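STRUCTURE:
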């Protein structure tokens, strides 16, 4: 790695850490809806790839996507722990992992033949369209839009 690249890594890591700090302080009134929406920069990353954007724009969209996922995960796991009964958390977590991680190899196995059949750019556009449709379907659910954070309790220690 060039010396310039090695020197910039701490700056990138610091910026990513700041995103984590923002995620800790962010307390939306509708945490499940916010969790979904903050992941939308992933769509921007696909869009940047689909339009052959300059490398700096792809990198910026990738950083925004990473930041969005960091905040998404903080909100998702907060909602998960608060809303899913303890006796069901293991089962719900297993389904979450199935959708989040186990299906990735299936997608990787399919994307090669699909891109060979229809083209790389067309495959990226298809991934964008499918991802957008899924995001909009999730936001359309009344239970996602309607879930509210509990009212903050007064801190009795500070009066």
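SEQUENCE:
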């Amino acid at each position: 790695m060039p010396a310039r690249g090695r020197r910039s890594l701490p700056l990138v890591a610091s910026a990513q850490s700041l995103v984590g700090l923002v995620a800790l302080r962010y307390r939306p009134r509708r945490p499940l809806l916010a969790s979904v929406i903050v992941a939308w920069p992933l769509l921007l990353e696909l869009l940047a790839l689909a339009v052959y954007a300059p490398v700096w724009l792809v990198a910026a969209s990738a950083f925004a996507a990473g930041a969005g996922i960091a905040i998404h995960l903080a909100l998702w796991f907060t909602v998960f722990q608060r809303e899913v009964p303890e006796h069901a958390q293991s089962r719900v977590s297993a389904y979450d992992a199935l959708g989040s991680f186990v299906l990735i190899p299936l997608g990787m196995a399919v994307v090669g033949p699909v891109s060979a059949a229809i083209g790389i750019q067309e495959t990226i556009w298809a991934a964008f369209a499918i991802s957008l449709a899924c995001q909009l379907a999730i936001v359309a659910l009344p239970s996602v839009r309607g879930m509210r954070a509990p009212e903050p309790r007064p801190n009795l220690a500070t009066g």
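REMARK: Residues 1-5 have pLDDT under 50 and may be disordered.
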